[in-house]
Model the fold of this input.
Amino acid sequence: MSAGLPFRVDDLVAPCPGDDPCGEELGYGSEKFEIRDLAKELRSEEPGALGWKEVRDRATTALAETSKDLDLLTSFSEAALELHGVAGLGAALEVAGKLCEQYWDDLYPRVGEEDAADDLEARSTRLASLMDASGPDLPRRLRARELDTPPDTPNADLRKAFYQTAAAEIDACLAALNALEQAVDQGFEASFEKYDSVLPKSMRAEDFKPSGESLRDALRDRRDAVRDAFELAFPGADLDAAVASSDGEDAGADDAPAAAAAAPGGGPAGAPAGPPRTRAEAVNRLRQAVDYFRTAEPHSPVSLLVERAIRWAELPLTDVLAELVKDSDVLSKIRETLGVPEPKSEDDY
Done:
């Protein structure tokens, strides 16, 4: 589900370096609290605020290299939704489900025999932040996001593909939520069996299992809104049938790279056919190309060059020119020709 996104699900699920696959415990004053506090500050900002990139990048690095910590996972999920919408949220939920499935006993905060009841409560609270209306309240924020606008083009196939992609992303997100719920339910059952002798007899595993219903309802309502918009734009057409048909075509394709992209940690379901419809989608296609060349032709410089182009796509023209042209006189002439003002100091490069 992570193709086209600036992170890979498999990278975040892979064991941390060192002897402990879940890395180290991050105590008070550690980076995870800085990331969490930054995310809290950004909740009052406009959706997609620039600071969310810092949250995303720091959280992904920490999850991959330092600690499989549920607080980091929550901050990462917030940023993924803010920056990448449903596709980002779906990838974050996929990461969460796989972490809970593969590392339940070793995730942070860990559960110990001495304080098993309190530890299980702490874990339940953090998982609820991903799945219900507590904490960062992802369901409310998902509902607050307006639907993307279809491309302004007379090409009906492109406009249909836009709606099919939106619906497929929601379907993939729902599937990831279901998988997360299943992994969490099984994890709490296993913990109660493991610590049965030290837990109060009145406690039940069901009391600790967070429900994903509020997030599921928000996703389903969004799916309905996409279907309504599709049917308004194309009277008599059936979005569900179109998505199913698209999925069938993808599954039956003989193209090896497409099959690889559909593997876990690969490409998103219902990737649109045809030319990109937006700038963001064009950049996403470039990221998919990077993934392909890294796997199919690791000796080729193509992936490195395309990655550089992707980075340039996020920079202002002045910064790109400063990287490309090292001769200051030549750079000044280019700026003059293009009408780009000279920076006030070298710090502006």
